[in-house]
Amino acid sequence: MVKITNLLVVAFTASLPLAVQAQSGALASDRAYCARLSEIYVRYIGHDDGSSHRIIPRGANDAQVASTQCQANSAWAIPVLEQQLATNKFTLPARD
Is the pTM of this model over 0.85? Predict the structure, then answer.
């Protein structure tokens, strides 16, 4: 019984870096996809608060927030931006 437990601990410990690396890659992919969605949204629908061109925001408030949350909370921001772009008849970019 002790051998089996030790083997399970070793197997789990050996696989942990692979799981972390896969999760890290997925997060980077999500952030990149979110950034592409945000870029399209800001350019055609919303506005960028950092821009020198102060225009009246045309997009929904939650989408405006989502466009700023791609790095911190891309899991929340992606569906919001996808919905807003789809509602406005934009073709969504390919997700890597």
Answer: no
